[in-house]
Amino acid sequence: MWKQTSIRKSPSPESDSLHHQNIQVASETVHGEKLAKRWEGCDDCVENKGCKCDHSTQDLKSIADEEEDVKDHTGANSSFAHSAINMIGMLIGLGQLSSPYALENGGWASAFLLVGLGVICAYTSHLLGKCLEKSPSSRSFADIGQHAFGSRGRFLASIFIDLEIFMTLVSYTISLHDNLMTVFAGTQLRLPIWTAELSTAQLLTIIGVLIALPSLWLRDLSSISFLSFGGILMSIIIFSSVACTAIFQVVKANHSIPVLHLRKIPAISGLYIFSYGGHAVFPNLHKSMKDPSKFTKVSIVSYASVTVLYTSLAFTGAKLFGPGVSSQITLSMPRHLIITKIALWATVITPITKYALEYTPLSIQIEHSLPGSLSSRTKKIIRGAAGSFLLLTILALALSVPYFEHVLSLTGSLVSVCICIVFPCAFYIKISSAQISKPALILNVTLLAFGLLLGVIGTISSSKLIITRLKRAHSA
């Protein structure tokens, strides 16, 4: 879901810096000349008197926007391939763990829903690119929301983004708990204070979270870029481990997959839509491209690649393990195999690499909301303390509701479907209301309604399942 950060270093910092300064000075000179020509020959303007010329403050705004565009363009350095790799890295995550479980429970016909949602999300990614083209000053998902619906649009978009980050981190922590429990199966960990209250798996999860805690105090993206690479590497290891299990016939792929379980579709739809989450950071990716006009092609290539990955992994896992497949494919693999141990440890390490990356957008929001009079050291302490408190809250919630598939499904149905489908369609319809064609309007309204319907029934279904599991746990 959120997302990878890519840092590129210039081979010649001094020459690049000088070149950037020259471009910036040149652009400022050109725009200054435009401004001077528009205001040339008007003494009233110069003397700040009532002016009757045909220009207005809107001219200043348009010039400022043009200058901002030039600055953005000079800072954009991502090629097509680099942008596609970044987007794929953003999309691959917990979805690959749950796709076999979702397919087995939904039936092989639900693969059409998986592929269809991939196509829809690629299209809504394209819509975000169109919104950015119509609003060059927008730099983030929340900016697009503000351009479409004002301050209420920004507020709603920000709330859903923060909620997605929070719930995604809860899911990662549950995954950490489940896989640590498998890695250290049979191990007994005793601490005198917590012996009667916490299990070994819970204590190991707490230790894992505490190991990751210092990473939330990092602010410089270059300091956490290695975490981004680590997350991608872990995903490759997990997929390769499952593939090797099938290729070398360690487990016979002889289970039949049911055709369709219609009553389970609402719940698994949340798992599917969560797998394609990434739209909240796509505007940043768009702004980083050398040629933003290729953003749609990047989206098509990335979503096609990820959809093929998820679909192939889903069928492989379902054929290998059948009805007994776990909500995380790594938990179903034969535990005595070395490739299983590698996959389990990769799944354990993945959440630890994700905490700082997922928290970065929130930390930036916190920093910007602080008074400018505070010193950088004070801001760092406040930001780090807020992150630590948030992570400990996430830890407590994950240990209280350790139901990975249901929490992930709820996240997809309640939050991801809005960010991936509903909001992009609504933003595009509003921003392009004057130019949008009737077929395009019908298409986007249909997708918006489909997203709302999918979100409502999925949220109700997954919420009921969580409540049922909690009641069973308390009654046991």
TrEMBL record:
Instruction: From the UniProt entry, list the residue stretches annotated as the region Disordered.
Output: 1-21
Supply the source organism for this entry: Salix dunnii
Instruction: List the membrane topology term(s).
Output: Multi-pass membrane protein
Where would you find the membrane-spanning parts of this chain?
84-103, 109-129, 155-174, 194-217, 224-248, 268-286, 298-318, 338-357, 381-401, 407-429, 441-460
Q: Output the InterPro entries linked to this UniProt entry.
A: AA_transpt_TM
Cite the Amino acid transporter transmembrane domain residue spans from the record. Answer: 77-461
Q: Which UniProt keywords apply?
A: Amino-acid transport, Membrane, Transmembrane, Transmembrane helix, Transport
Q: What is this protein called?
A: Amino acid transporter transmembrane domain-containing protein
Q: What is its main location?
A: membrane
> What GO MF annotations does this protein's record show?
L-amino acid transmembrane transporter activity
Is Phosphoprotein a UniProt keyword of this protein?
A: no
